[in-house]
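Lecture 7 notes: from sequence to structure.
We start with the chain below.
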Amino acid sequence: MAAEARVSDFGGKAHVALNDPKLRANFRRAMDGLMAKRAAQFDDPAEWTALRARGAAIRARALARLPDLLERLEANLTRNGITVHWAETPAEANAAVLGILRQAGAKRVIKGKSMVTEEIHLNAHLEANGITAVESDLGEYIIQLAGQAPSHIVMPCIHMNKVEIAELFADKIEGQTYTEDVDELCAAARKALRDRFADADAGISGVNFAVAETGTLVLIENEGNGRLSTTLPPLHIAVTGIEKVVERLDDVAPLLSLLPRSATGQIITTYVNMISSPRKAGEKDGPRQVHLVLLDNGRSRVYADVQLADTLRCIRCAACMNHCPVYTRVGGHTYTFTYPGPIGKILTPQLEGLDCAGDQPHASSLCGACAEVCPVQIPIPDLLARLRTEAVRPASPAVRGGGSGRSLADTLGWAGWTAMYSSPRLYGLSSRMMGLFGNLIPAWMPMLKQWTRVRTKPRFAGKSLHQIARERGFSND
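Predicted structure tokens for the same chain:
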């Protein structure tokens, strides 16, 4: 089943979010806590500078050798007994997962947290083909019950408070009474999910890092649901983007020092899972089959551009979101697509196209907070500026949908601007005309309405500086 075509409407959704006091309070409370916890973990500037430089170097080295590392990863995974599937598009990835499940006769799936499966709308595809997929991450489970998409890449239900979750559980979980006690709510989810782990025919997960050197899939989590999802069912399917590969096992430790501290303010997550093979002879647990689906979905196009390829360094910590003055006020659902916040504003337009998400690079103040906290030094403001340019550059081939933001009015307007500033005589004439008639232009005119929608209409001076100087006896020479 193909995903429904979507077009971003950030401006319209942002106005709705800004007028929702409960949503804004939920985000403000959560983000203040996350920023404080991260700051406490990186209180030594020298350590932070050195560690993020190392993390950036590790990711840059992996990307520089990406084609070779992917082939090496496949060879080592295959040698270890893990089957690798390549998918250029979401449809191919969904078909690969569905084919594996059908071959195994699987009808019930338990899922660990995975943003890539959100990207390809895997749950909807499986449901349309008669396979039930249940999210086991607590946040993902909550939004699945609510029928929503994640609003944050680390904490999917961060937009909800405990009262909303209590009401949801009382409504959706059989036998659950209303309670706002957090421990009781967690216990209710644990009880509801326990049998799902035991009954699942297959487990599906994402991947944090895929190690080319050893053919190892690294998954980190805090709840134990990821470990249960990948070891208890007889079949494990991991799905990840091609950019998640790292060269060596030694590369993982510095990244694991950066990711949890940047994401949740933890020194390390509760669980670090390293999967290198299916269950071996004599072992008492683990899946009998392990498959990895490697998704492209436009990443190769991003990789082909020297500057934009920096987007693929991302380790999905969400620190940029937690510090973004835009995201923290409007939330993740405002962004329409899977990846919100600053990283979404540079990744989504490249994956989906500027014709679908061209407004997102403009949903930024370019304050630079995202770049300051990025643990792998992605120059997000520079990439936002580049995408803004690509949206209006004539026939731009660098980004999917490039040039889609350029209109005939823009073309004519800039041609006129160029002509005016290229000719002193024409510039002088234009200045005099604007002084005489510019203030008569109504605010709703196309050339002004985007400005005057949120700002006072500019007023043109009646006389130019040159005219005033001449009147006062100063020479133009």
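Points to note: The CA atoms of residues 431 and 464 lie 7 Å apart. The first helix runs from residue 10 to 18.
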